[in-house]
Amino acid sequence: MKAFSQELANSYGIMGILNVTPDSFSDGGNYQAVDHALRQVESMLNKGARIIDVGGESTRPGATFVTAEEEMSRILPIIEAIKARFDCWVSVDTYKTTTAAAALEAGADILNDVWSGLYDGGMLALAAQKEVPIILMHNQAEEGYQDVVQEVKQFLLDRTQAALDAGVKKENIWLDPGFGFAKGVDDNIALLKDLDQLTCLGYPVLFGISRKRVVDHLLGGGTKPLERDTMTAALSSYAFSKGCRLVRVHDVEANQPIAKLWNEVC
Question: Which of 212, 228, 242, 245 does the annotation list as catalytic?
Fold first, then answer.
């Protein structure tokens, strides 16, 4: 996946979210059937997505735990179908090494781990063995920070070193600040304000804030997830200005002009 690392690390791209779960906070149940999922993938690719991020377990607060077996039954047929029909990159959104390994066998190209390899201890070795890119996201069990920016920064530095020690090549490591994961509104705002402290660490950064509660807060509160796409797109442009290279979003169309602008002008 050298092409992925080199191309996207030097451009601005969109990762389209494909939740194949019944309980995701904004689109749960919409894309569990293969034909529905493929229509959504085609739409996202036509509108400018570079990567399709397939997830089989909701990571919203209070979501029900899903076994690896159930997770694989949801995502593997869809990953196989996407790779058979489309020429695109696919990332698998999972923190379970068993699921990740099966997804790579099914054709996935990229690992997107919300626990940065900490869940079962095998993800970093898998990324090294398969020589695939891995996205390491900040996460912790619960909220509570003395200095959220510095603590997220140190966590990500620690996890990148762990990945390097496991044999992952530096060019295959991406970072994600983890907006909305064990973070209150004030924590998320602080990370937004000092986002450039994370984009200067020497690794490309994925920005994932699409439709989250902090977006509702910035809109004044009381909005539904589907009403947050314009503000999400505005935040994507802000993230690019701070040095992020990839935005993970539900509404690809709203973000496409922003990525196009940054790629052509900046």
Answer: 212
Beta-bridge partners for 110 = 91
Q: Domains along the chain?
A: 2-265 (3.20.20.20)
Catalytic residue among 50, 159, 211, 248: 248
Residue 162 burial (CB count, 10 A): 15
Q: How far apart are CA 127 and CA 144, in angstroms?
A: 30
Written as six digits, the tokens of 34 are: 């293969």
Residue 239 to residue 215: CA distance in whole angstroms: 14
245 catalytic per annotation: no
Give the helix/strand (H/E) hosting 156: helix 148-166
CA distance 212 to 67: 25
Looking at residue 173, its pLDDT comes to: 97
Catalytic residue status for 248: yes
Instruction: Summarize pLDDT for 129-157 with one digit per residue, the tens.
Output: 999 999 999 999 999 999 999 999 999 99
**How far is 172 from 160, CA to CA, in rounded Å?**
10
Asked whether the beta carbons of 193 and 187 are under 8 A apart, the reply is: no
How far apart, in whole angstroms, are the C-alpha atoms of residue 137 and residue 171? 16
* Cα–Cα nearest to 100, from 80, 76, 70: 76
Q: What is the pLDDT of residues 46-78, one digit of tens each?
A: 999 999 999 999 877 666 889 999 999 999 999
CA-to-CA distance for 126 and 174, rounded, in angstroms?
15
243: left (phi over 0), alpha (psi -120 to 50) or beta: left
Helix axes 148-166, 123-130, angle to 10 degrees: 50
- Can you give the pTM of this predicted structure? 0.94
